[in-house]
Amino acid sequence: MALFKSLDSTESNESKAQNEWPDVEPEKVKCLIIGSGPAGYTAAIYAARANMAPVMYQGMEPGGQLTTTTEVENFPGYPEGVTGPEMMEDLKKQAERFGSDVRWGMATKADLSKRPFKVAIDDKSVIEAETLIIATGATARYLGLETETKYKGSGVSACATCDGFFYKGKRVAVVGGGDTAAEEATYLAGLAEKVYVIIRKDYMRASKTMQKRVDNTKNIEMLYEHETKEIYGDNVVQGVRLIKRRGKPDEEEVDIKIDGFFLAIGHTPNSTVFSQFITTDKEGYIVTDAGSSKTNIPGVFASGDVQDKIYRQAVTAAGSGCQAALDAERFLGEQE
Q: Which burial class, exposed, middle or buried, applies to 331 when counting CB atoms under 10 A from its CB (0-12, 13-18, 19+)?
């Protein structure tokens, strides 16, 4: 390894590539929103109504994580429930009705060192924005199994509070050994007949308090030293095959019948493009001032799951999107 970065040609080329911007005339906007979902679309609704003419780029997954959810029954205003994609389409139409310019594309580069803020879209175009709202969300971590993708939305979920209700009286499994897994398992235990907690190690990483809560819940069964081999079922999840490890090469295949498979191994906030300038915590979540969407950079605001690792609900994301638009409006008013 080179002692100095400038002496490493590979690193030098990478650094040069990062500093290259599309050779195009920048488009100037008052309010740029990066990311969609409940946070981004709500921000667009409020920003448009405030005559900020927001431009939104929807990102890799237009509508966010809710587009992978079949039924949403806990969002206010839908007494009969609604599918995730339908709800996101409703929010998008509402944003466009008030004049939001909703576009395809994702941020690939950013310079937030001064206003107007500069953002490259798909490495092809450049936007210069007076205010920036980051609503890029967080991506749930998966085990990387082919069958996870196959059954996503059909028994595989990364949010117990979102989808747990559909497994009332059924049997489910939770993968993970930290506080999130313990919380998800105890929440599901109040709904499901049986909850299996699948842990690769021979111990839980969760806090002592959370471990005690799990241990005291009768319908939770801990499966230590188990790894998921595959999920199976006829169109929907019906079971999971595990490998029980007792020290290699001694392995045993275990088959359990379940109706739902919940991932609780964490989320990765989609903040990398902005992290050079924006203050984040050790996990990458954008840090905002208490009770607001304000980041460490005046004029840049964050909303939704990219800055919320506690609640991660559609309704709280929508609320924070509202905050971000109102904060951006006030910021522009103060500049004038």
A: middle
Cα distance between residue 245 and residue 200, in whole Å: 9
Reading the block at residue 263, the tokens are: 């991932």
Given a cut of 50, whether residue 83 has pLDDT beyond it is: yes
Catalytic residues: 159, 162-163
Please name every residue paired with 230 in a beta bridge, in sequence order, or none if there are none.
241
DSSP state of 129: E
Rounded to whole angstroms, how far apart are CA atoms 234 and 236?
Answer: 5
d(CA 315, CA 39): 9
Residue pair 202/225 in contact (Cβ under 8 Å)? The answer is yes
Residue 315 vs residues 5, 107, 125, 320: alpha-carbon distances, Å: 45, 25, 32, 9
β-strands 239-245, 251-257 pairing: antiparallel
Distance CA 126, CA 161 (A): 39
Q: Kindly report, residue by residue over 197-235, the tens digit of the pLDDT.
A: 999 999 999 889 989 999 999 999 999 999 999 999 999
Q: What is the pLDDT of residues 259-298, one digit of tens each?
A: 999 999 988 999 999 999 999 999 999 999 999 999 999 9
Residue 152: what are its φ and ψ, rounded to 5°? -60, 125
Give the pLDDT of residue 5: 29
CA distance 220 to 1: 49
Segments forming the whole domain that contains residue 226: 142-263
Question: How many domains does the structure of the chain reveal?
Answer: 2
Q: Measuring CA to CA, which residue among 16, 52, 60, 18 is closest to residue 36?
A: 60
Per-residue pLDDT tens over the stretch 4-48: 223 343 344 434 445 689 999 999 999 999 999 999 999 999 999
**172 and 229 share a domain?**
yes
Residues 53 and 90 in one domain: yes
CATH number at residue 114: 3.50.50.60
> Tokens in use for 118?
């500069």
- Looking at the fold, whether 66 and 127 belong to one and the same domain comes out as yes
Give the pLDDT of residue 22: 92
What kind and span of H or E run contains 56?
strand 55-57
